Amino acid sequence: MYRTLLALPIAVLLSAGLAACGGDDGGGDDGDQTVTVYAAASLTKAFEQLKDDFEADHEGVTVDLELGGSSDLVTQLVEGADGDVFASADEANMTKLTDADLQADDPQLFASNTLEIAVPPDNPAGVQSFEDLAGPDVDLVVCAPEVPCGAATQSMAELVGVTLDPVSEADSVTDVIGQVVAGQADAGVVYRTDVIAAGDDVTGVEFPQAQEVVNRYPIVALDDAADPELAQEFVDLVLSEEGQQVLADAGFGAP
Amino acid sequence: MARQRTTGLPAWVFVPALLGVVVVVLPLAGIVSRVDWGQFWPLVTSESSRQALLLSLRTSSVSTALCLLLGVPMAVVLARSQGRWLGVLRSLVLLPLVLPPVVGGLALLYTFGRRGLVGESLEAWGVDIAYTTIAVVLAQTFVSLPFLVVSLEGALRTAGRRYEVVASTLGASPTTVLRRITVPMVLPGLLSGAVLAFARALGEFGATVTFAGSKEGVTRTLPTEIYLQRVEDPDAAVALALVLVVVAIVVIGVARPGRGSL
């Protein structure tokens, strides 16, 4: 009894400590390898497909997808997280990684994404264009300027020449689409791929200026990858014709 | 009453106890070590920080007042009545205590949101709380109410009914008993409950961001501002986080469990 009581907090501490030092496995042994891919959340659907394809082609290899906001992911990598591949939703966050000199090679662009307006299926505020978003009766939700989708939205507003007055500035594009799906917001500015991923829950409103502000997605294998060859092979798959088709199906444009 | 001597404690107990202290204190040291002291003051007094802090203080105060208004009667009813359904009712009321805040936010969204259970009728009446400060107060009240109810109900049960029974046999009306006997008797418990509720409201993040949104000066409270700044301006996030840590320490100093009635 006493021993168990004593062991518990120590076990907690040890496992926490081990988790912090661990993660360096995967390389070396045949047939039991892991490729850890840090990928922007907007790539979720496409990369899950590519993970399956990659695992089918490489027996005994598991692809571990770490999905999240690009800025969060790059912070984790720079702070020492063990990853093999990094796929960012914008070039600014990739620059943070290359500034820390973590790349194995020069990053390569593999996809692009444009902005689109998401509205609830019944489009309560009757939004038909980007200019309509500035209307006084539109409850608009956008990303905060601090995150990539917010920065893109801001450039778009300047380009179109309107001043947006959003009711809320979310800190991720998922929050924006969530508010539209719930019918809480009349409109949200998100990426084209988010509208496709949300299916019937939202309707996309395209606008002609969308092509003027393009987000480009770079990918790179990391210098301290457990198995550099395998990491590069995953990058190659993304850049291959097969990978490009998967991305196109998810709504991404060519790089 | 003689004080009990605490000689029976085995020495090894101090080892895990100390480890426990380390688990709690070390992360605090971690955040303090990241504070950029030279920039600390400008960072916490920048326009967006000030707005967030003021909004947090305002909404948390209103939420605490609402908790008192609704929570004191709730605690009295739970502590002083009997009935089969009381246990079920208590469990329901305490639910926000164990519910992940994000779930609470979704629940509020589908209740008071524009397409929600109640929100739809409210909107027809011209009441639209979506993206307003009222939504923040609602989220904070939802998560902090159980804190007040739990600590006050405990205080009421410990205090017992003796004086209430005497007062009422002497002819005091139920209202007089509640006002003059019950509430004054549990005042320390009431105070610590209110402080806990205030602290919980101040730290509220998940339900607020899910339900109320995030807009400077309207719905962006201090925790939401910290979450937003953590990537682009980590120095600002850390400075603001330290402000919340200091507030939390002050709160614990005021509402330390074991003081007062508990």
Task: Summarize the structure in words.
The complex is a heterodimer of chains A (255) and B (262). Chain A has 255 residues and is α/β, with parallel strands linked by helices. In chain A, strands 1, 2, 3, 4, 5, 6, 7, 8 and 9 form a 9-stranded mixed sheet that branches. In chain A, helix 3 packs parallel to helix 4. The longest helix of chain A has 20 residues. The N and C termini of chain A lie far apart (62 Å). Chain B has 262 residues and is mostly helical. Chain B has one domain: MetI-like (MetI-like fold, Orthogonal Bundle), CATH 1.10.3720. The longest helix of chain B is centred in the first third of the chain and has 34 residues. The two termini of chain B are 19 Å apart. The model of chain B has no long low-confidence stretch (mean pLDDT 89). Chains A and B meet through helix 1, helix 3, strand 6 and helix 6 of A and helix 1 and helix 12 of B.
Structure summarized in a few sentences:
The complex is a heterodimer of chains A (255) and B (262). By secondary structure, chain A is of the alpha/beta class. Chain A contains nine helices and nine strands.
What CATH architecture of chain B would you give?
Orthogonal Bundle
Q: Quick one: which chains have the greatest interface?
A: A-B, 30 and 30 residues
The count of β-strands of chain B is 0
In whole angstroms, the N-to-C terminal distance of chain A is 62 Å
The percentage helix of chain B is over 70%
Keyword list:
heterodimer; A: 255 residues; alpha/beta; nine-stranded mixed β-sheet; 9 helices; 21% strand; disordered N terminus; B: 262 residues; mainly alpha; MetI-like fold; 74% helix; globular; Molybdenum transport system permease (chain B); ModB_ABC (chain B); membrane (chain B); MetI-like_sf (chain B)
What secondary-structure arrangement, pairings included, does this model have?
The complex is a heterodimer of chains A (255) and B (262).
Chain A (H helix, E strand, L loop, with lengths): L1 H20 L11 E8 L3 H14 L3 E8 L1 H9 L6 E3 L3 H9 L8 E12 L20 E4 L4 H13 L7 E3 L2 H9 L5 E5 H7 L4 E3 L8 E8 L6 H12 L1 H9 L6
Parallel strand pairs in A: 1-2, 1-3, 5-6, 5-7
Antiparallel strand pairs in A: 3-9, 4-7, 4-8, 4-9
Helix pairs in contact in A: 2-9, 3-4
Chain B lengths: L13 H20 L3 H8 L2 H34 L5 H13 L2 H12 L6 H6 L8 H27 L2 H8 L4 H12 L1 H17 L2 H6 L10 H11 L1 H21 L8
Helix pairs in contact in B: 2-13, 3-7, 3-10, 3-12, 4-7, 5-7, 7-10, 8-9, 10-13, 12-13
